[in-house]
Amino acid sequence: MSLNPRLRDWQGRHVWLIGAGHGIGAALARQLRAAGAVLALSGRSEDALREVAGDDAGCMVLPLDVTREQDWQQACGQLLQRWPRIDLVVMLAGDYRAVRAWQLTPQLARQMVDVNLLGVMYGTAAVVPTLLAQQQGSIVLVASVAGWAGMPNGLVYGATKAAVNHFAQTLYLDLRPRGIGVHVVNPGFVATRLTAQNDFAMPALISAEQAASAVLGGLARGDFDIHFPRRFSLALKLAAHLPYRLYFWLAHKVTGL
Ligand SMILES: NC(=O)c1ccc[n+]([C@@H]2O[C@H](COP(=O)([O-])OP(=O)(O)OC[C@H]3O[C@@H](n4cnc5c(N)ncnc54)[C@H](OP(=O)(O)O)[C@@H]3O)[C@@H](O)[C@H]2O)c1
Asked: Residue 244 catalytic?
């Protein structure tokens, strides 16, 4: 039995994508629109959101910065003035900077924690009352396989994504018995501007369109943990459960760092 309602029919479904101006979010917007969903798109750059919205007259563009609590309240208010309900909220906004121990600064730490973790928590706080009042709807938090185990370069990023996985588990326990679906997405390497800074060959790299399809596949199955590409994420899941002595050796060996 699936852990969440299976989301398959998007016709007329109201979907709010946060972090929709680029990368995986933009690809998800394109695929959901093609499947008949009614979209609201958020992110900081209004120009980028308008480009993704294109000539879709029914699509709402709601610029917001996920790190600003008041932006969430404002956007949610605007949304609910126009929409009868929210069927799905997907939180994709994320920031990644490669950080090794000797490069750590309070500013880098704050930057990624603010967007990747507090942004998700602020967004959840903003939408959960509406989902509970509706007694239906689903929420998707985008984390990363980098949150499953410590990896060189992921000093802050990995910690924020581990926390998002943890947050999603607890959210599931609270919300699923009340009729709300909760999913966490753990992608491997996806070719977007986020990973464009990587100066190494990324294993099992996929496109943003492939990532968006994998997210929709996971939602259609009602998965809680939607991870991909499987050839990479399953190996990593296994590695994360190895004894530390073996895992640390493997992490050095595989990354060369
Ligand atoms: N690419 C990968 O390999 C990979 C792997 C694992 C997990 N992920 C996760 O997948 C999600 C999407 O990443 P992506 O690869 O598609 O990256 P991306 O192309 O850089 O997209 C990130 C999106 O987040 C928005 N954003 C960033 N900071 C924001 C803020 N403070 N407020 C509102 N929106 C903000 C950006 O738009 P604006 O700049 O206009 O605000 C952009 O639309 C992220 O959570 C990322 O951590 C990615």
From this structure: no
